[in-house]
C-alpha cells in the first residue's frame, strides 16, 4: 500500500488484489474501534492499535500442515508397546513417530523440544536395539 492513503485514493496503489473500497471500509471501521471498543471481534483494548501510518507492507498467509507427531506408544526404554501396554519385543521407536510429550499441543514457546526428543530418544532406541540384538541373537 502506498503513501496516498487519503480518502479518495486509499489503498488504490496496493498490489495485493484486495478490493480498495473494502480495504478502506475495513480500516476505517477498525480505526474507529481503536478509539472505543472492538464490537466486531471483541479484540482486547490493549491490542487495538490504529492503522494510520504512511506506508504498509502486506504478506499473504495460508494455512498449511506443519507435520505429524506421535502415534506409536513407547515405554521408558523406547520399546514399542501395544494397546494394552505390553512390550512388542525387538521393536523400538523414537522421534516424531513416538513423541507423545507434545500431546495434545505442540509447545512453540519451548524451543527445541521435539528435536531434543528426537535426538535423545533416537540415541536411546539405537542403544537399546543393539543390546536387544546382542542378547536375542547370540551366535552359537
Ligand atoms: C518447518 C519445521 C520447523 C521445525 N522447527 C523445530 C524447532 O524449531 N525446534 C524443534 O525442536 N523441532 C522443530 N521441528 C520438528 C523437528 O524437525 C522434528 O521433531 C524432528 O526432525 C523429528 O526427527 P525424526 O528423526 O523423528 O523425524 P524426521 O526428521 O522426519 O526424519 C524421518 C526420516 O525418515 C525418512 N523416512 C521416512 N519414511 C521412510 C522409509 N519408509 N524408509 C526410509 N526412510 C524413511 C524421512 O525421509 C526422514 O529423513 C520442526 C519441524 C518442521 C517441519
From TrEMBL:
GO terms for molecular function: steroid dehydrogenase activity, acting on the CH-CH group of donors. InterPro entries: FAD-dep_OxRdtase_2_FAD-bd (IPR003953), FAD-oxidoreductase_2 (IPR050315), FAD/NAD-bd_sf (IPR036188), Succ_DH/fumarate_Rdtase_cat_sf (IPR027477). The keyword Membrane does not apply. The lineage of its organism: Bacteria, Bacillati, Bacillota, Clostridia, Peptostreptococcales. GO terms for biological process: steroid metabolic process. Residues 17-104 form the FAD-dependent oxidoreductase 2 FAD-binding domain. This is Fumarate reductase/succinate dehydrogenase flavoprotein. Keywords: FAD, Flavoprotein, Oxidoreductase.
